[in-house]
């Protein structure tokens, strides 16, 4: 293979990308060396098994991915507003919408939410870490290397270009040769391992490690949403794993599972993909519901309305999410009866979702609403999400879907639910729990400025797309007819509004780091759940003494009784896991093996795979039992943190 | 306070008015301006559902505005109307579960009946046999074969008005979707399979048709024009094509199958169905076998300002 086949050549935008990658990497290396921070980076972050630090790394990576996916979105919007400028050619446009979709779902939405779960769930249930801290680190590094692998494709080898759904036969070896599509397969496969492991890890954590007294139906609602999400992950992700593996075998080893030749079944891919893909959208929306519930209850200064109904509706949504996948391809011609069944099951999801909307509204009834930034995101979510929801029902009506399918009406719908749902929740959750993570709040003034830019920009971008969709504009076209121009220009203006909003949000992180007042108590918002019972910054063992939490809104009850999580008489040595470099090394080797497989360098891939197996062997004979934090040490840390 | 409420009401009264404007503007949107019974039934379904959705949106927005305005924490709010422990009310919860359920049932009935209707030719032209057209997608063009008339067109389509068209959809290679928004919704074209799609035009005119499903580099330009004509004019066109169009040879057809974007339109006085039907299991890999290398080449397509009238 020649060098110019290895690197992508001939695109000025790609050269720009290469230059910035080199510049940023050199800057990071320089700074780490100059400030002598390599050891710190290794000890404190790369080898950590602390769920809070892993969560922060998840969120930082997700923000970087949001930037990348957002840049892709901007480029698409520029192309569609000025199609005659030839900013992007057809092939480049195809690559960009493919990476935009894949990155936003797999490497932005999910890791962001998993990051928040990582930090908050153990704190909410009174646990000191995950059930399997080592596996948690492994999960993060598998996601991280999967994301890096996928992202590097645009400078090395070429980006995938068959859409984030990667439909066969288009994505098969015959029509999409070269490493691009392999990047998609291996990037998702590698990070999928981590997601599945996190699902199991969090499920066990929630089921086995709750504070004494905390029955399942006393758990905070965000923890409930996480638990339900874990079940979806555990049942859905193996389907993706198998589908990706089959397509990989097709592409690299010449099998015929999904090919047009050799009696393969291309349509089976669409089925397998959406049997994972539909539950996947609930994987990214249910935790968002959980975040909104927490934020709304906190800033409405009122108990969440209909807690049991909220929980059961999530369970119902999770169940139904496995029974609707065909609605992504009503137009495949499965017949009126099949389409009818999936049509009705799809619309049924609106019922539990509607129940949740009304419960949030009822939570606001007779409340005292404080308009903090996280609350603003949560409030904006309700009307915006309803617009996405009702159009979802319209898309669910199969006969009408024949007209909506793959049009901008669909694009508008799923951006309305994914941005108003998931992205708003990510921002709300990050700002809400920010003081718990970093010891200071984000500035409210800049936070609200970012909010208004982003939310208004969002509606300006996507509301016109419903209409341009009804006017017959299909998705994934790289130029448009003049009739569609005005609405597309409006969309592009809105997209820049969102971009400015995001930029202000990121600036606010820096600004608040410099200027925000440091938190002195752990209870920044007058919270209701156990995470606010810990001091800020949270000690690495979380709880000096684990409280007895037999009430809903456990911390509220503790505050009334004057209890804390630091009862000097009940202190005992705390058993904690040791840091380890094995997860990052194991996953780096796995990433190397995947990279080799992408370029079909089989020998190197086998060497990498053997390396992974060796690492597993080393781990299996690792007898490190962790260590104990002694009582005196706990006392010293807690007194300092609590200013006693 | 009273003055303010009146103010509110006046704005609320404007709301339905603005909806009327919105919907009248919508009637110019392609999908909401159908030219045949299939598109009409889908439009009816869309508009029917739209009213319910608007109702839901108005109710939720009104409740939302009420809650946010009334229960915001403002100076001097005090503890009036503040009940921090209020957390359930079975009656109201049943109401807001049952009403959406009823709406879903109301929407399901016309959805299901329309679905079954769309599997049959439209009733309005029940006195005539549907005209059969094989619509075959091949990267990135459209072949339309008229087996009864024994003619074939490339990248354009003539149909008679007031007669059902029975499209037999298939693809020579990647998955595509035949979509003529003004006549009705789309269905997939897949290699080795055949889908049936019934459409009908009630008004003569020229409509845009395209591939609705992304299938690679030339996707954007995989479009075609539909010319709907009165029966007589259509028959004239058929006769003219039969007399004047050249014959398609297998060799030429194989060449046409090579992946490319083709702006020109073609007509032939026979069909390719004689030697291959891509909708059958035997024909599914016909194109790939012949052009395996060509599928791997990039075309480097840019947006050119077209002068052939195809994109106007």
Automatic annotation (TrEMBL), chain A:
Membrane-spanning residues:
12-35, 56-76, 96-121, 133-156, 183-209, 221-249, 281-299, 311-330, 336-358, 379-400, 412-434, 446-467, 487-511, 585-618
Q: Name one GO molecular function term.
A: heme binding
Q: What does the record give as the reaction this protein catalyses? A: 4 Fe(II)-[cytochrome c] + O2 + 8 H(+)(in) = 4 Fe(III)-[cytochrome c] + 2 H2O + 4 H(+)(out); 2 a quinol + O2 = 2 a quinone + 2 H2O
Please give the superkingdom of this protein's source: Bacteria
The record's GO CC annotations read: plasma membrane; respiratory chain complex
Query: Which GO BP annotation is one of this protein's?
Result: oxidative phosphorylation
Q: Name one Pfam family in it.
A: COX1
Annotated EC: 1.10.3.-
Give the required cofactors: ferriheme a; Cu cation
What topology does it adopt in the membrane? Multi-pass membrane protein
Q: Which positions fall inside the Cytochrome oxidase subunit I profile domain?
A: 34-550
Where does this one sit in the cell? Cell membrane
User: PROSITE patterns, alphabetically?
Assistant: COX1
Q: Using the UniProt record, name the top-level EC class of this enzyme in a single word.
A: oxidoreductase
Q: In which pathway does it act?
A: Energy metabolism; oxidative phosphorylation
So what family is this one in? Answer: Belongs to the heme-copper respiratory oxidase family.
- Free-text function comment from the UniProt entry: Catalyzes quinol oxidation with the concomitant reduction of oxygen to water.
What name is this protein filed under? Quinol oxidase subunit 1
UniProtKB/TrEMBL annotation, chain B:
Q: Enzyme class, one word?
A: oxidoreductase
Domain Cytochrome oxidase subunit II copper A binding as annotated: residue spans: 128-240
Q: Where in the cell is it found?
A: Cell membrane
So which domain of life are we looking at? Bacteria
Recite the UniProt keywords alphabetically: Cell membrane, Electron transport, Membrane, Oxidoreductase, Respiratory chain, Signal, Transmembrane, Transmembrane helix, Transport
Query: Taking the first listed entry, what is the main subcellular location of this protein, grouped into a coarse class?
Result: membrane
**What InterPro entries does the entry give?**
CcO_II, CcO_II-like_C, Cupredoxin, CuRO_UO_II, Cyt_c_oxidase_su2_TM_dom, Cyt_c_oxidase_su2_TM_sf, Cyt_o_ubiquinol_oxidase_su2, QoxA
Kindly give the membrane topology term recorded for this protein: Multi-pass membrane protein
Q: Please list the GO terms describing molecular function.
A: copper ion binding; cytochrome bo3 ubiquinol oxidase activity; cytochrome-c oxidase activity; oxidoreductase activity, acting on diphenols and related substances as donors, oxygen as acceptor
This entry carries the following GO cellular component terms, namely:
plasma membrane
Similarity comment text for this entry: Belongs to the cytochrome c oxidase subunit 2 family.
- Function statement: Catalyzes quinol oxidation with the concomitant reduction of oxygen to water. Subunit II transfers the electrons from a quinol to the binuclear center of the catalytic subunit I.
List the protein's name.
Quinol oxidase subunit 2
Species per Swiss-Prot/TrEMBL record = Thalassobacillus cyri
Q: What is the lineage of its organism?
A: Bacteria, Bacillati, Bacillota, Bacilli, Bacillales
């Amino acid at each position: 293979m020649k060098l110019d086949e290895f690197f992508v050549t001939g695109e000025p935008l790609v050269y720009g990308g290469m230059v910035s990658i080199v510049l940023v990497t050199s800057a990071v290396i320089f700074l780490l060396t100059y400030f002598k921070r390599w050891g710190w980076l290794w000890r404190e972050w790369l080898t950590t098994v602390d769920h809070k630090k892993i969560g922060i790394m998840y969120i930082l990576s997700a923000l970087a991915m949001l930037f990348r996916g957002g840049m892709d979105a901007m480029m698409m919007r520029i192309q569609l507003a000025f199609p005659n400028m030839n900013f992007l050619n057809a092939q480049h446009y195809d690559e960009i919408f493919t990476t935009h979709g894949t990155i936003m779902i797999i490497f932005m939405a999910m890791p962001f939410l998993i990051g928040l779960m990582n930090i908050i769930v153990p704190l909410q249930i009174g646990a000191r870490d995950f059930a399997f801290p080592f596996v948690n680190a492994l999960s993060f590094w598998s996601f991280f290397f999967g994301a890096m692998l996928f992202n590097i494709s645009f400078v090395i080898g070429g980006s995938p270009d068959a859409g984030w759904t990667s439909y066969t036969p288009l994505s098969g070896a015959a029509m999409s040769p070269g490493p691009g599509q392999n990047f998609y397969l291996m990037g998702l496969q590698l990070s999928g391992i981590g997601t599945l492991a996190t699902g199991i890890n969090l499920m066990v954590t929630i089921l086995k490690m709750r504070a004494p007294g905390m029955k399942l139906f006393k758990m905070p609602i965000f923890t409930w949403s996480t638990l339900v999400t874990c079940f979806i992950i555990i049942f859905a992700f193996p389907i993706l794993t198998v589908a990706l593996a089959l397509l990989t075998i097709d592409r690299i080893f010449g099998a015929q599972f999904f090919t047009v030749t050799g009696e393969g079944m291309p349509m089976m891919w669409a089925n397998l993909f959406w049997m994972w893909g539909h539950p996947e959208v609930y994987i990214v929306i249910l935790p968002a519901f959980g975040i909104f519930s927490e934020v709304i209850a906190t800033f409405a200064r009122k108990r969440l309305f209909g807690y049991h109904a909220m929980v059961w509706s999530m369970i119902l949504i999770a169940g139904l999410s496995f029974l609707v996948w065909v609605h992504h391809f009503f137009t495949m011609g499965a017949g009126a009866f099949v389409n009818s069944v999936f049509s009705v099951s799809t619309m049924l999801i609106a019922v539990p979702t509607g129940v949740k909307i009304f419960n949030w509204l009822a939570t606001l009834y007779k409340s005292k609403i404080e308009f903090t930034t996280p609350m603003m995101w949560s409030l904006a979510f309700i009307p915006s999400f309803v617009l996405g929801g009702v159009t979802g029902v319209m898309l669910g009506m199969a006969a009408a879907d024949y007209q909506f399918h793959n049009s901008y009406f669909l694009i508008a719908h799923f951006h309305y639910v994914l941005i108003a749902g998931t992205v708003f929740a990510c921002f709300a959750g990050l700002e809400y729990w920010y003081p718990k993570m970093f010891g200071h709040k984000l500035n409210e003034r800049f936070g609200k400025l970012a909010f208004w830019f982003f939310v208004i920009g969002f509606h300006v971008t996507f509301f016109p797309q419903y209409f341009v969709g009804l006017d017959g504009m299909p998705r994934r076209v790289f130029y448009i007819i003049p009739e569609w121009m005005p609405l597309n220009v409006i969309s592009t203006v809105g997209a820049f509004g969102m971009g400015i909003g995001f930029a202000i949000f990121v600036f606010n992180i820096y600004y608040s780091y410099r200027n925000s007042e440091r938190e002195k108590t752990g209870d920044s918002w007058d919270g209701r759940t156990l995470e606010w019972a810990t001091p800020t910054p949270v000690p690495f063992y979380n709880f000096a003494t684990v409280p007895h939490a037999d009430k809903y809104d456990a911390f509220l009850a503790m505050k009334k009784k004057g209890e804390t999580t630091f009862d000097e008489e009940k202190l005992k040595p705390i058993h904690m896991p040791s840091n380890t470099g094995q997860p990052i090394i194991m996953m780096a080797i796995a990433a190397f093996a995947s990279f080799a497989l992408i370029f079909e360098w089989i020998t190197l891939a086998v060497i990498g795979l053997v390396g992974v197996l060796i690492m597993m062997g080393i781990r299996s004979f690792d007898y490190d039992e962790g260590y104990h934090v002694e009582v005196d040490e706990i006392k010293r840390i807690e007194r300092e943190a609590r200013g006693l | 306070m009273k003055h303010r409420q009146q103010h509110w009401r006046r704005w609320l009264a404007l709301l339905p008015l603005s909806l009327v404007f919105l919907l009248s503007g919508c009637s110019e949107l392609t999908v909401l301006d159908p030219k045949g019974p299939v598109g009409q039934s889908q439009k009816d379904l869309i508009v029917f559902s739209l009213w319910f959705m608007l109702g839901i949106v108005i109710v939720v927005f009104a409740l939302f505005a009420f809650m946010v305005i009334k229960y915001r924490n403002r100076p001097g709010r005090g503890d009036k109307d503040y009940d921090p422990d209020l957390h359930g009310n079975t009656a109201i919860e049943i109401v807001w579960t049952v009403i959406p359920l009823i709406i879903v049932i109301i929407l399901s009935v016309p959805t299901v009946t329309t679905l079954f209707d769309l599997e049959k030719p439209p009733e309005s032209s029940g006195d005539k046999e549907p005209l059969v057209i094989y619509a075959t997608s091949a990267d990135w063009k459209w072949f339309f074969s008229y087996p009864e008339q024994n003619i074939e067109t490339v990248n354009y389509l003539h149909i008679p008005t007031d007669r059902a068209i029975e499209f037999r959809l298939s693809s020579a290679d990647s998955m595509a979707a035949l979509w003529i928004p003004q006549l009705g919704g789309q269905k997939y074209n897949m290699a080795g399979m055949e889908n049936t799609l019934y459409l009908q035009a009630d008004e003569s005119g020229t409509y845009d048709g395209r591939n609705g499903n992304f299938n690679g580099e030339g996707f954007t330009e995989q479009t075609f024009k539909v010319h709907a004509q009165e029966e007589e004019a259509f028959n004239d066109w058929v006769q003219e094509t039969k007399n004047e169009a050249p014959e398609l040879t297998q060799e030429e057809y194989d060449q046409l199958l090579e992946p490319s974007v083709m702006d020109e339109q073609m007509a032939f006085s026979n069909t390719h169905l004689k030697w291959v039907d891509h909708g059958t299991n035997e024909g599914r890999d016909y194109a790939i076998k012949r052009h395996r290398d060509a599928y791997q080449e990039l075309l480097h397509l840019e947006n050119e300002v077209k002068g052939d009238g195809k994109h106007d």
